[in-house]
Amino acid sequence: MSVDIATVKRVARLARIAISEEEAVSFQSELNAILGFVEQLNEVDVANVEPLNSVVAQRMKMRDDVVTDGFYAEKVVANAPASDDGFFMVPKVIE
Question: Gene3D superfamilies in the record, alphabetically (predicted)?
Answer without folding.
Answer: Glu-tRNAGln amidotransferase C subunit, N-terminal domain (1.10.20.60)
